[in-house]
Amino acid sequence: MKNIKVLGSGCANCKATAKLIEAVAKERGILVSLEKVEDIQTIMSYEVMSTPAVVIDGAVVHAGGVPTHKTVTEWLS
């Protein structure tokens, strides 16, 4: 199981990113632990300057804007 965090203020792009990750995981039959992180101190601890950002198993894999379906699929492969 992959541990995924979507970092952001709860904006529309942050919600869209979380929804996309959930959808791709479901399509692929992959179990993920998805957490939405809105606490600014926690977000800053990842040294992310733009959101939404995505952290998978402790590593920042994306920052700024909604990732593409293809990109999310690659992350979960």
What does this molecule look like?
The protein is an alpha+beta fold and 77 residues long. It has one domain: Glutaredoxin (3-Layer(aba) Sandwich). It has three helices and four strands, in the order βαβαββα. Helix 1 links the parallel strand 1 (2-7) and strand 2.
Counted by DSSP, the helix tally is 3
Strand order of the largest sheet: 2-1-3-4
CATH second-level architecture = 3-Layer(aba) Sandwich
Indicate the proportion of strand residues. Answer: 25-35%
Helical/strand content category:
alpha+beta
Q: End-to-end span in angstroms?
A: 11 Å
Contiguous runs where pLDDT drops below 50 for at least 5 residues = none
Helix content: 40-55%
Average residue-wise pLDDT: 96
Return the domain count: 1
Q: How would you sum up the global shape?
A: globular
The name of the CATH topology is Glutaredoxin
How many strands in all?
A: 4
CATH top level is Alpha Beta
Write the H/E string, N to C: EHEHEEH
Short description:
Helix 1 crosses helix 3. With 77 residues, the protein is of the alpha+beta class. The protein is built from three helices and four strands, in the order βαβαββα.
